[in-house]
Specification:
The chain has five helices and four strands. By secondary structure, it is an alpha+beta fold.
């Protein structure tokens, strides 16, 4: 059995995470349909999960896996560097990341799901 590591989070982000859950992008909705209710190989995923001082799109605590969907907002000046720094900080707590382009999620969800399943199979 995998032992869960507790990742601290800023409690001030809980309200913001709730807003994000209620206003998900189309790509997030599509991927959530594949992850919710333990649909992904029996693993429990949370959406818009606060970790440290950040919010990740999806998180599985048993796998210590964060999944991010990079959309249009990630293309603005400096956003890529901020994403890299944010990921680096979260990874320092032992969290693994999978990143997908929003367009890929919208047009090829089966490949996105297969990539996640392959990642999980290599680690269990």
């Amino acid at each position: 059995m995998i032992r869960r590591k507790i990742i601290p989070y800023n409690k001030k982000l809980v309200a913001r995470a709730r807003v994000l859950r209620n206003n998900m992008t189309f790509g997030e909705v599509l991927l959530w349909e594949e992850l919710k209710n333990k649909n992904m190989m029996g693993f429990d995923f949370d959406r818009q999960k606060p970790l440290i001082n950040f919010i990740v799109d999806f998180y599985c605590k048993d796998l210590m896996l964060a999944i991010e969907i990079d959309g249009e907002s990630h293309g603005f000046d400096g956003a890529e560097e901020k994403d890299e720094k944010r990921q680096e900080i979260i990874e320092s707590f032992g969290v693994h990341f999978l990143r997908f382009d929003d367009q890929d999620v919208k047009t090829d969800i089966s490949n996105v799901v297969a990539t996640i399943r392959d990642w999980i199979k290599k680690r269990i």
